[in-house]
């Protein structure tokens, strides 16, 4: 493969640093070492990864306790702080948190954590309070997210300290496999242009992201750590899009997980969203976990660009969804000027377009072929990566951490 220009050098250096654990693909905040396994969250700094929070003399609170991040929110507000990666110096699989906070009636404080399992790979976000977050595998660095919510405009919790302890506990159930989970669920159009997603992204016209009813799979702003492949039910059109939002209908329904680790509604079959069970079967009295009367069986929301342009849908409908982070294998992150890239039926720019891969999407690379020479973000080359059944993209637009192919030849 031929690579040219400074982008190639940057890609090679970044790949080396990622492999060495020297930098994180998530945030510009340097990783902090904690050999003891116990530390206090730094609540004094708010940056671009964070949403509607402020730090006053080390106390974390909502920046605007009357800010409604989307037009359909009538009252209440929310925000969160995403801390930099914390290196632990030893393998752990369990993290617990203790929170010191003032929580007026109607306010909540939640602490979630996730562990790094590879240069570009993370576990899902898991609640560290109450109890402890139990990872499915050992990790040696973690990240913390502190979320504040209020149901009353103008009232906010005050978080004074979050202390964390990481250790090695009993092994948890693992869900990652060679093949990522796929389920057929009902998809609805997100819309709400001008609103803000739960990770702080301001929704634009014909935007490209998706939303699931659980905070476990929300990628921090400007990343696609959690990405889904969404296809029409005949698989004629697909889009690979990052998860940037929480919803529809629920906020704690990671329905793709088995009941042993599903956060809520553990009695439902794996792969069946609570909203679908409520709408079709009268589950939970026909209401969502938030107490709303469920008006459709949606298990995914699609931003307008995914809905209209990626899948070319004209109405809400069932779609095939692959939760890519539940699988394993080499990956690459789509890096373009902002617009999604075409996914082709073969390794040529004249091949049929099968859909899109959105900017920031983290895709699984099944194998590679030699095809048409293309100049992209990372130089010039003839390597094309197969990222799904009959789905090919030029390797020159994927951040893989290597100038050589990262998957076997097809």
Summarize the SSE layout with pairings.
Layout: H1 5-20, E1 32-33, E2 38-40, E3 53-56, E4 59-62, E5 77-82, E6 86-102, E7 107-118, E8 121-122, E9 126-127, E10 132-150, E11 158-167, E12 181-189, E13 210-212, E14 227-232, E15 238-246, H2 274-281, E16 298-302, H3 304-310, E17 317-323, E18 331-334, E19 341-344, E20 353-357, E21 362-364, E22 367-376, E23 379-388, E24 391-394, E25 398-399
Parallel strand pairs: 1-6, 12-16, 13-15, 15-20
Antiparallel strand pairs: 2-11, 3-4, 5-10, 6-10, 6-11, 7-8, 7-9, 7-10, 12-17, 13-16, 14-15, 14-17, 18-21, 18-25, 19-20, 22-23, 23-24
Task: Please tell me about this protein's structure.
The chain is mostly beta strands and 410 residues long. Among the domains are: 32-167, Sandwich (Jelly Rolls); 181-326, Barwin-like endoglucanases, CATH 2.40.40.10. Helices cover 8% and strands 40% of the residues. It is built from three helices and 25 strands. The protein has helices at residues 5-20, 274-281, 304-310, and strands at 32-33, 38-40, 53-56, 59-62, 77-82, 86-102, 107-118, 121-122, 126-127, 132-150, 158-167, 181-189, 210-212, 227-232, 238-246, 298-302, 317-323, 331-334, 341-344, 353-357, 362-364, 367-376, 379-388, 391-394, 398-399. Strands 1, 2, 5, 6, 7, 8, 9, 10 and 11 form a nine-stranded mixed sheet that branches. A hairpin with a 2-residue loop joins strand 3 and strand 4. The two termini are 16 Å apart.
Task: Provide a short characterization of the protein structure.
This protein has helices at 5-20, 274-281, 304-310; strands at residues 32-33, 38-40, 53-56, 59-62, 77-82, 86-102, 107-118, 121-122, 126-127, 132-150, 158-167, 181-189, 210-212, 227-232, 238-246, 298-302, 317-323, 331-334, 341-344, 353-357, 362-364, 367-376, 379-388, 391-394, 398-399. With 410 residues, it is mainly beta.
């Amino acid at each position: 493969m031929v690579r040219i220009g400074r982008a190639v050098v940057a890609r090679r250096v970044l790949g080396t640093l990622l492999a060495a654990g020297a930098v994180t693909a998530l945030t510009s905040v340097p990783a902090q070492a904690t050999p003891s396994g116990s530390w206090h969250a730094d609540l004094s700094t708010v940056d671009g990864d964070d949403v509607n929070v402020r730090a006053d003399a080390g106390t974390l609170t909502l920046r605007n306790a009357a800010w409604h991040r989307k037009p359909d929110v009538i009252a209440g507000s929310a925000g969160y702080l995403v801390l930099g990666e914390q290196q632990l110096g030893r393998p752990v699989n369990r993290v617990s948190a203790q929170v010191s906070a003032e929580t007026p009636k109607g306010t909540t404080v939640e602490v979630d954590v996730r562990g790094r399992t590879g240069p570009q790979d993370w576990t899902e976000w898991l609640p560290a309070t109450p109890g402890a977050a139990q990872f499915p595998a050992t990790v040696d660095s973690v990240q913390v997210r502190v979320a504040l919510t209020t149901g009353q405009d103008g009232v906010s919790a005050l978080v004074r300290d979050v202390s964390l302890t990481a250790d090695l506990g009993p092994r948890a159930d693992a869900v990652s496999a060679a093949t990522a989970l796929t389920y057929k669920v009902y998809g609805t159009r997100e819309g709400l242009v001008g609103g803000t997603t739960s990770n702080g992204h301001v929704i634009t016209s014909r935007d490209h992201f998706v939303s699931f009813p659980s905070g476990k799979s929300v990628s921090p702003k400007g990343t696609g750590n959690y990405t889904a492949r969404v296809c029409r039910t005949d698989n004629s059109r697909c889009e690979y899009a990052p998860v940037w939002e929480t919803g529809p209908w629920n906020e704690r329904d990671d329905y793709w997980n088995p009941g042993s680790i599903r956060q809520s509604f553990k009695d439902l079959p794996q792969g069946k969203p609570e909203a679908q069970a409520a709408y079709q079967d009268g589950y939970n009295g026909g209401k969502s976990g938030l107490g709303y009367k469920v008006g459709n069986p949606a298990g995914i929301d699609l931003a307008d660009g995914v809905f209209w342009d990626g899948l070319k849908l004209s109405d809400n409908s069932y779609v095939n969804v692959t939760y890519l982070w539940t699988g394993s294998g080499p990956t690459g992150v789509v890096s373009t000027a902002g617009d999604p890239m075409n996914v082709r039926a073969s390794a040529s720019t004249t091949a049929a377009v099968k859909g899109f891969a959105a900017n920031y999407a983290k895709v699984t690379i099944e194998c590679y072929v030699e095809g048409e020479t293309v100049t992209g973000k990372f130089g010039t080359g003839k390597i094309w990566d197969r990222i799904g059944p009959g789905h090919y993209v030029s390797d020159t637009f994927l951040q893989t951490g290597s100038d050589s192919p990262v998957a076997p030849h097809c």
